[in-house]
UniProtKB/TrEMBL annotation:
PANTHER family: SIGNAL RECOGNITION PARTICLE 54K PROTEIN SRP54, SIGNAL RECOGNITION PARTICLE SUBUNIT SRP54
Protein name, UniProt field: signal-recognition-particle GTPase
Keywords, ordered alphabetically: Cytoplasm, GTP-binding, Hydrolase, Nucleotide-binding, Ribonucleoprotein, RNA-binding, Signal recognition particle
Gene3D superfamilies, sorted: P-loop containing nucleotide triphosphate hydrolases, Signal recognition particle SRP54, nucleotide-binding domain, Signal recognition particle, SRP54 subunit, M-domain
Annotated organism of origin: Candidatus Annandia adelgestsuga
Primary residence: cytoplasm
Family indicated by similarity: Belongs to the GTP-binding SRP family. SRP54 subfamily.
Primary enzyme class: hydrolase
EC number: 3.6.5.4
C-alpha cells in the first residue's frame, strides 16, 4: 500500500545523502519534492500543506547546526511527523476483562467487511483468548450470511445463523439476547453494506448501533478508494460514533495516502490492517512500525511477532536442532520452510519488514507455489533422499507439478545449497546467515540484498 510513498521518500533521502543543512536552496527544493510526493500518493491537499509546514518549522531549528547531515535530519523529522499523523490517541482495541462486549463492523458495500469480520474474530480468539460469537445482519447481499457461516465453521468460530430471516433489526435483537445468556465474551456483528442514498439501510444501522451499544464501532475502509474515502466517515458520524478504523487491501498497489488523510482529518485511530486474502493476513496497526517500513528502516519487531505467533514451535525446534547438530535436511524440511514463509504473510510481507534491502521490487509469490507443487509431486522416498532423483524422475515430477524440467532441477539445486549452507552456519553470526540466505531465494529477488 505504501510502496509509492516509500519508494519516492527513500529516493529523496538517498539523493541528499551528502548535503548539509546550511543550504537554504536545498531545503526549499526538498520541501517542494516532499509536497509533490505526498500529492502523488493521494494525500488530501489540506493534510499535505500542514505536513510540509511542520517540516519547514523543524528544519529551522536545525539550521544553527551547519555541519549536520541533511539526510539524517530529514529521516528524523519525517519519521516524527508521520507518526504524529498516524498515532491518534488509542490504537488498541477495547476489550474489557470481564464484561460482555459488542463489536460493530460498518462500511460501504465491497470494502471487505465479511472477510474482515472473520479475520478479526480469529485474531481476538487466538491472541486475546476471548470466546467469540459472530453474526451477520447483511441480508441484502446474496449469500453473504451463508458465506460467512461456512468460513466461520471452517475456522472454528461460533456463528449464529438465522434461516429465512430478512430483518437486520430482528437478527440483532435475537443475537444480543442469546449472547447475554451465553458464555461468550465478544459478539461481533457484520452489518449491511452502506450506500449513500439508501435511507433504509442507514436507519437500520443506526438502530443496530443504538440497540447493541457497542464498545467498539470499527469503520472498514478500502485502501484502494483514495481521497473519496474521506467523505464516508463524515457521512457516518451523523448516525453513530466511530471508535476506530480497519484498513483493508493494504497489500494492494495503492498509493497509501488514504491512511494519512483519514487519520489527520477524521481524528480516529487505525486499529488494524488487512494485508491479504488469507484469514491470518491481519495486523495490529503500530504507527511507528509502519513509518519505519515507509522510510526503509524495516520492522523486525513485527516480523519476529509473526514468526512467534504463526509458526509451529515444535516443528521449528526440530529444524533448529538439525542446524545445531549439522544434520541433513530433506525435502520435507524444505517444504516446511516454504509453508512457514506463507504463514507469516509470504515473501513480500517479509521483504517489506527487512531493513537491509537495497530496493524492494515486486515479487511473484507464484514461484513459491511452484516449489511447493514440485515437492508435492515427489514420492516419500524422493523427498527423504533427494540424491536418488535422476532424469526420468525429474521428467515425471515436472509433468505431475505442471512445471518444466528446468524448474525441478532449480528446486533441487536450491535445496542442495540450503542443505550445505545449514551445515556451515553452525556457530556463525546472523549477518553471515543472511548473506548466504539470498542464494537459496529465486533469482528475481537475489538483487534485493
Amino acid at each position: 500500500m505504501f510502496n509509492n510513498l516509500s519508494k519516492n521518500l527513500i529516493k529523496l533521502i538517498n539523493k541528499i545523502k551528502n548535503n548539509k543543512i546550511n543550504n537554504d536552496k536545498n531545503i526549499k527544493l526538498i520541501l517542494e519534492k516532499i509536497r509533490l510526493i505526498l500529492i502523488e500518493s493521494d494525500v488530501v491537499l489540506k493534510v499535505v500543506d500542514i505536513f510540509v509546514k511542520k517540516i519547514k518549522i523543524k528544519f529551522k531549528k536545525y539550521k544553527k547546526y551547519k555541519d549536520l547531515n541533511l539526510n539524517k535530519i530529514l529521516i528524523n523529522i519525517i519519521k516524527k511527523e508521520l507518526i504524529n499523523i498516524l498515532d491518534y490517541k488509542n490504537n488498541n482495541i477495547n476489550l474489557p476483562n470481564q464484561k460482555k462486549s459488542v463489536i460493530l463492523l460498518i462500511g460501504l458495500q465491497g470494502v471487505g467487511k465479511t472477510t474482515t469480520a472473520l479475520k478479526l474474530s480469529k485474531l481476538i480468539k487466538n491472541k486475546y483468548k476471548k470466546k467469540i460469537l459472530l453474526v451477520s445482519t447483511d441480508v441484502y447481499r446474496p449469500a453473504a450470511i451463508s458465506q460467512l457461516c461456512k468460513l466461520a465453521l471452517k475456522n472454528n468460530i461460533s456463528f449464529l445463523k438465522y434461516n429465512n430471516k430478512k430483518d437486520p433489526i430482528y437478527i440483532t435483537k435475537s443475537s444480543l439476547k442469546k449472547f447475554k445468556k451465553s458464555n461468550y465474551d465478544i459478539l461481533i456483528i457484520d452489518t449491511p453494506g452502506i450506500s449513500y442514498h439508501n435511507k433504509k439501510i442507514e436507519f437500520e444501522i443506526k438502530n443496530i448501533y443504538n440497540i447493541t451499544k457497542p464498545i467498539e464501532t470499527l469503520l472498514i475502509l478500502d485502501s484502494m478508494m483514495g481521497q473519496s474515502s474521506i467523505k464516508i466517515p463524515k457521512f457516518l458520524e451523523k448516525i453513530l460514533k466511530i471508535t476506530g478504523i480497519f484498513l483493508t487491501k493494504v497489500d494492494s498497489d495503492t498509493k497509501g495516502g488514504v491512511a494519512l488523510s483519514v487519520c489527520s482529518i477524521m481524528k480516529k485511530p487505525i486499529k488494524f490492517i488487512g494485508t491479504g486474502e488469507h484469514i491470518n493476513n491481519i495486523e495490529k496497526f503500530y504507527p511507528d512500525r509502519i513509518v519505519s517500513r515507509i522510510l526503509g528502516i524495516g520492522d523486525l519487531k513485527s516480523l519476529m511477532e509473526e514468526v512467534k505467533n504463526k509458526i509451529d514451535q515444535e516443528k521449528s525446534n526440530k529444524i533448529i536442532n538439525k542446524i545445531k547438530y549439522g544434520l541433513n535436511f530433506d525435502l520435507n524440511d524444505f517444504l516446511e520452510q516454504i509453508q512457514y514463509i506463507k504463514n507469516i504473510g509470504g515473501i513480500k510481507s517479509i521483504i517489506d519488514k527487512l531493513p537491509f534491502l537495497k530496493n524492494k521490487k515486486k515479487f511473484n509469490e507464484k514461484q513459491f507455489s511452484n516449489i511447493k507443487n514440485i515437492i508435492n509431486s515427489m514420492n516419500k522416498r524422493e523427498r527423504s533422499k533427494p540424491n536418488i532423483i535422476n532424469c526420468s524422475r525429474i521428467r515425471r515430477i515436472s509433468l505431475g507439478s505442471g512445471t518444466t524440467e528446468k524448474d525441478v532441477i532449480n528446486v533441487i539445486d536450491q535445496f542442495n545449497y540450503m542443505n550445505n549452507m545449514m551445515k556451515k552456519i553452525k556457530g556463525n553470526n546472523i549477518k553471515e546467515i543472511f548473506k548466504n540466505l539470498k542464494n537459496i531465494l529465486p533469482n528475481n529477488i537475489k538483487n534485493l540484498f
